[in-house]
Design a protein that fits this description.
single chain, 656 residues, mainly beta, Rossmann fold, Methylamine Dehydrogenase, Chain H, six-stranded mixed sheet, four-stranded antiparallel sheet, 6 helices, 43 strands, elongated
C-alpha cells in the first residue's frame, strides 16, 4: 500500500515494512513487540501438569481444547512444549480478558492459542475436532467441568486428560461404531467401491475444509484415489504422500517420493481407470509403488511406510518373471499394481510394450500400463516371494481382485484394438480364462472360459464374483459394455448373466415414470442424445446384497432390477458408496440417499470433485480432498472438504 509518500509492505513472516524515498538505512526504525518469556511467573503447578498431560497422552500436534481455562496458565505451558493449536474456553469474561492479555505478551495469542468466552456445554464447537482435551479447572479442583466423552473429542485416538497432577484420568475415544475404511483405490481388495460405512446417511454438512498447498495431478490425468484408515486420510501428490487427520484436516506428515504421480499430471489420460492403484493399506502399513523416475530403476520398488508416523519401514523389490528366486533389475519386472491383505502384498509385472490409446484427445500414455505379464504374492514382513503366476496370454489390471482365500483375474490375449500405435480392429474381445488362485499358495483352484469380462469385483459375504466391462467415460475401445455376470466365487459357476442397458445395449431412463411402471421404465435406446440417456456409466458397486451399476440397481443374487431411478449431470468421475449413500461428481459435489431416493441427487456448490475417485465414504465422513488441479471451469474454490451427516455435527447444528 502507498500512503503519505511511503510504501507499506507486509510479508508472510508477519513483518510490516515501511519504505520512504530517503534510502538512509542508518536512520531506519525497527518497531518490534518485546516478548514476555514469563507472563505467569514461576507457574509451577501448570508446568508440572502440562508435562504430565503430554506424557500421558503422547499428543503434541493437532488441536487441543482447554475447558474452563481460567487465565490461560495451562494453555501457555502446553503451547511452550508442543506444536498444538490450542483453543481455550471460559465462561468468565474477566478470565478471558486476562488470558488474552498474558498470552499476547508471550507472543502466542492468535497464532498458537485462541481464547473464547463460551459456556461449557461446548455446543458451538464442531464434533470430533479435538485431538487433546484438557481443563485448567480440573487441575485446580480435581473434577471435570464436562462429560465423560464430549462430542468434540476426536474418534480413533482422541485423548482427554483431566485432573490434578499425579491423579490424572486419561480417556481415549475409540473408532465410531459402524465407521468404514477405504484401504484400496476401490475401497478394499475386492473392488466393491463400498466401505459399508453405517454412519453416513441423510443430509450432509461441512465438518471442516482447508486450502491445501499440496500439488496433486491434473484432474484430467485421473490420478490415484485417496485412502482412509483409522481416522487418517492419505492423499497422493505429484511428489509424495500426505497424511491428514480426517476429523479436523490437520496435516500429520509428508513422505517425499520424487515423481510419484508425475505421469498422471497431464490432460486427457485414462490414468487410474486402466492402471489400477500403486498404493494400498494393510494393518498399520502403507505400501507405495514408486513412480518411474527419469534415469532411475525405482519403478521396481515398493516403500513400506508406518501410517501413524510417516516413517519408512522397509523397501520391497519386484521379483523377476524369469527366476522367482532372485530380484532382477532388467526391463521385464516393473512393478504394476499394489494390493495388500492379511500380511501379504500382491502385485504384478507390467507389460511395458502394450501402450493403449489415451482419452478423448491425444495424451502421453507411455507410462500408463494397463496389462501385466504376471501376478505375484509377497510376504509383507520378510519380502519373501510366496508365489508367482505367469500369464499364458496377458492379465488386464482391472480384472485383478482378492476374495476370501482366493485371487481372481482374467488371462486372455491382449485387445490389439486398444493399442495407441497401429491398432488392429476387432469386433469383440478374444476368449480368455477366468482364473482363481489360492491366495496363500498360488495354486490354480479353477479356470473357466470367459469371453467378455474386463473388470472383476467380489462379494465375500455372499460368495459372488461380479464380472463386466468398465464402460465408463474413460473406457478402452475393446470395452463395449452392455452385459454383466455373476459367478459363484468359490467355484466359478455362472449364477446369472444378463444384458444391461449400458453401452451397446443402451437404454433411455424416463425421469417421469408412467403410472404403475416397474423395472420396464427403461426403454430401448434408438440413438441420439435423448433425455435421460446414459452414454457411459460408473464402475459397478457392491453394497451388501445389491449392485449399483449406474443408473441401475440390481439384486446381487439374481440380477433382478430394483425400481430406484437415478440420474446425475457431468458424470466424469466414479461413484463411491457407503451402506446408505452414493457420493460423486454431479457438476459439483453430489450425493444420493438410498432411504430417500425419491428426492434424487442433492448438491453442494462452489467446488467440484476430481475426474476419477475422490469422494470416499469412510470414518463416518465423506472425504473430498482437493482434486480439481488446473481445472478452468467456473468453480470458485479449490478446497479439501470433509462432510459429516448433520445429525453427527455440533449440538448447535443438530438443534437448528
Amino acid at each position: 500500500a502507498v500512503a503519505q509518500g511511503n510504501l507499506f509492505v507486509s510479508t508472510d513472516k508477519g513483518y510490516i515494512y515501511c519504505f520512504d524515498d530517503q534510502a538512509n538505512l542508518s536512520s531506519s526504525i525497527i518497531i518490534a513487540k518485546k516478548i514476555n518469556n514469563s507472563p505467569y511467573g514461576k507457574n509451577e503447578l501448570y508446568e508440572k501438569s502440562a508435562k504430565e498431560i503430554i506424557k500421558e497422552s503422547g499428543i503434541t500436534h493437532g488441536y487441543c481444547i482447554d475447558v474452563a481455562c481460567g487465565d490461560g496458565a495451562l494453555a501457555y505451558e502446553l503451547a511452550k512444549r508442543t506444536n498444538l493449536h490450542i483453543i481455550a474456553v471460559d465462561p468468565n469474561s474477566a478470565n478471558v480478558e486476562k488470558a488474552r492479555k498474558l498470552l499476547n505478551e508471550a507472543g502466542l495469542y492468535g497464532s498458537r492459542v485462541t481464547v473464547h468466552q463460551s459456556d461449557l456445554s461446548l455446543k458451538r464447537y464442531p464434533s470430533y475436532f479435538a485431538n487433546l482435551t484438557v481443563s485448567r479447572y480440573s487441575v485446580d479442583k480435581g473434577e471435570s467441568p464436562i462429560g465423560e466423552m464430549p462430542h468434540i473429542q476426536r474418534p480413533n485416538g482422541g485423548v482427554m486428560v483431566i485432573g490434578m497432577p499425579n491423579a490424572m484420568k486419561k480417556t481415549i475415544r475409540e473408532a465410531l461404531p459402524g465407521a468404514g475404511q477405504w484401504t484400496h483405490m476401490y475401497a478394499d481388495p475386492s473392488n466393491t467401491i463400498c466401505s459399508m460405512d453405517d454412519i453416513v446417511k441423510g443430509e450432509l454438512g461441512i465438518l471442516w475444509w482447508n486450502d491445501p498447498d499440496f500439488d496433486v495431478p491434473s484432474r484430467h490425468g485421473r490420478g490415484i484415489a485417496p485412502l482412509y484408515k483409522d481416522g487418517m486420510l492419505f492423499v497422493q501428490g505429484i511428489n509424495g504422500i500426505r497424511a491428514y487427520d480426517a476429523y479436523n484436516g490437520h496435516q500429520i506428515w509428508d513422505y517425499y517420493i520424487e515423481d510419484l504421480a508425475e505421469h498422471y499430471d497431464q490432460d486427457n489420460l485414462l490414468g487410474a481407470a486402466i492402471t489400477a492403484s500403486n498404493y494400498a493399506i494393510d494393518g498399520d502399513r502403507l505400501y507405495v509403488r514408486v513412480g518411474m523416475q527419469q534415469h532411475s530403476l525405482a519403478f521396481r520398488l515398493v516403500h513400506v511406510i508406518d501410517i501413524h508416523t510417516g516413517k519408512p519401514i522397509k523397501i520391497l523389490e519386484s521379483p523377476s518373471i524369469e527366476d522367482p528366486a532372485k530380484s532382477n533389475w532388467g526391463p521385464l519386472n516393473y512393478w504394476g499394481f499394489v494390493f495388500a491383505k492379511d500380511g501379504t502384498v500382491y502385485g504384478s509385472i507390467v507389460d511395458v510394450d502394450h501402450i493403449v490409446t489415451g482419452g478423448y484427445r491425444e495424451a502421453n500414455m507411455s507410462r500408463q500400463f494397463s496389462e501385466s505379464k504376471a501376478v505375484f504374492a509377497m510376504d509383507a514382513e520378510t519380502g519373501e516371494l510366496k508365489w508367482i503366476y505367469k500369464a499364458k496370454d496377458s492379465i488386464r489390471n482391472n480384472t485383478f481382485a482378492i476374495g476370501d482365500g482366493l485371487v481372481f483375474f482374467i488371462d486372455r490375449p491382449q485387445a490389439l484394438q486398444d493399442r495407441l500405435r497401429n491398432p488392429i480392429k476387432y469386433n469383440s474381445l478374444e476368449p480368455g480364462k477366468l482364473i482363481a488362485l489360492d491366495a496363500k499358495t498360488g495354486e490354480i483352484k479353477y479356470s473357466v472360459d470367459n469371453d467378455f469380462v474386463t473388470l472383476l469385483a467380489v462379494s465375500n459375504e455372499y460368495d459372488i464374483l461380479i464380472g463386466t466391462q468398465q464402460f465408463t467415460r474413460f473406457k478402452l475401445p475393446s470395452e463395449e459394455g452392455g452385459r454383466i455376470s455373476a459367478y459363484k466365487a468359490s467355484t466359478g459357476e455362472t449364477i446369472w448373466d444378463k444384458e444391461i442397458g449400458i453401452g451397446k445395449n443402451q437404454k433411455i431412463w424416463v425421469k417421469e415414470l408412467p403410472d404403475g411402471a416397474g423395472p420396464d421404465y427403461y426403454y430401448p435406446y434408438t440413438g441420439g442424445n435423448a433425455p435421460g440417456s446414459y452414454n457411459y456409466s460408473s464402475r459397478p458397486i457392491i453394497i451388501d446384497d445389491e449392485i449399483f451399476f449406474e443408473p441401475f440397481s440390481l439384486k446381487l443374487k439374481t440380477g433382478e432390477e430394483i425400481n430406484r431411478p437415478f440420474g446425475r449431470t457431468y458424470n466424469c468421475g466414479m461413484i463411491c458408496s457407503g451402506k446408505h449413500i452414493l457420493t460423486f461428481r454431479s457438476g459439483t459435489f453430489g450425493y444420493y440417499n438410498f432411504s430417500d431416493w425419491q428426492s434424487g441427487v442433492k448438491n453442494w456448490g462452489g467446488f467440484r470433485p476430481a475426474c476419477w475417485i475422490n469422494t470416499i465414504v469412510a470414518g463416518g465422513l465423506v472425504l473430498v480432498p482437493e482434486g480439481q488441479a488446473r481445472c478452468n471451469c467456473s468453480y470458485q474454490m479449490l478446497p479439501s472438504v470433509a462432510f459429516a451427516p448433520k445429525y453427527t455435527l455440533s449440538p448447535n447444528e443438530i438443534e437448528q
